[in-house]
Amino acid sequence: MTLRLSGVGYRYAGATRPSLLDIDLALPNGSVVGLVGASEAGKTTLCLVASGLAPRVVGGQVRGTISLDDEDVDAWPMHRLSQRIGIGFQNPATQLSQVASTVFEEVAFGPMNLGVDRSDVVDGTWAALGSLGIEDLAGRDPARLSGGQQQLVAMAGLLAMHPEHLVLDEPTAQLDPAGTRLVGAAISQLAADGVSILVTEQKTDLLAAIASSVVVLAEGRIALSGPTDEVLADPRLADLGVAEPAAVRLRRAATSAGVDTARLEAALRD
Ligand SMILES: Nc1ncnc2c1ncn2[C@@H]1O[C@H](COP(=O)(O)OP(=O)(O)OP(=O)(O)O)[C@@H](O)[C@H]1O
Ligand SMILES: [Mg+2]
After folding, report:
1. Which CATH architecture fits 3-84+164-229?
2. pLDDT at 77
3. Ligand 1 within 6 A of 40 CB?
4. Closest CA to ligand 1's atom 30
5. 241: left (phi > 0), else alpha (psi -120 to 50), else beta?
6. pLDDT tens per residue, range 16-71
7. Whole-model pTM over 0.85
8. Which of 138, 148, 189, 195 is the most buried (most CB within 10 A)?
9. Is the CB of 43 within 6 Å of ligand 1?
10. If you measure from the C-alpha of residue 27 to the centroid of ligand 1, how many angstroms do you get, rounded to a whole number?
11. How many CB atoms sit inside 10 A of residue 264's CB?
């Protein structure tokens, strides 16, 4: 099950130039693709296009092909796409329904609206909470959780819909290090369960830990892409407005200080 973008471009309604150009991207099952780039590079726009919200909800004009398992999804309505592709944004509070008084109701909200059988909703909700390790939050008021907990609840709400693909735009942007680790672990677990995940993330240390590949956007185009280790160690990264992971910075500093890099590598591995 692969979500694929081939030669995709996108222009917002009324914009004079495209915000995305020539995007080729594949998200096979179980992959975590990190998406980075300077501010305004087009990361959020790519999330909107990959999830189908643009143009269906956002408007604008898409070029190229977006396919699921080699089937062109151009004519699919949003409700059909959204059963296959979940999308999450950086502010978890805005993703919560605001009508549920407990986390359990919040996570059950999507499947209930789809008219899923009641006992299946209950089972599915517990399963979604369990896969993120937050069953203990089931009875809590979503509005009174920490940002990290809210982001996990929002992700559980996505999971309860059993998406094959998830598109997450800066899911840890508002989170402290502990919340960031929780979301990172959840993403890795989902990928291990076969979900494919496109995740925009400024924290390259997190991507170094969870991403199978990384795509760097610059002015709406793919500037670099490939295996995580290679892309995150690319000397062009800083010029592209992306912070290097701590390990890469350390290696560079050590090399320029004349430290024996083989010994440093050994130390970093320990
Ligand atoms: N609704 C819109 N209408 C017209 N142009 C837009 C709209 N939203 C974004 N853009 C433009 O599209 C380009 C890409 O913006 P986008 O928000 O995707 O960047 P980003 O990489 O997510 O940036 P950030 O790091 O700030 O989140 C920018 O030039 C931006 O000005
Ligand atoms: Mg953005």
Report:
1. 3-Layer(aba) Sandwich (3.40)
2. 95
3. yes
4. 40
5. left
6. 999 999 999 999 999 999 999 999 999 999 999 999 999 999 999 999 999 999 99
7. yes
8. 195
9. yes
10. 22
11. 16
The Cα 139–Cα 150 span in angstroms is: 13
Give the domain ranges of the chain. Answer: 3-84+164-229, 93-162
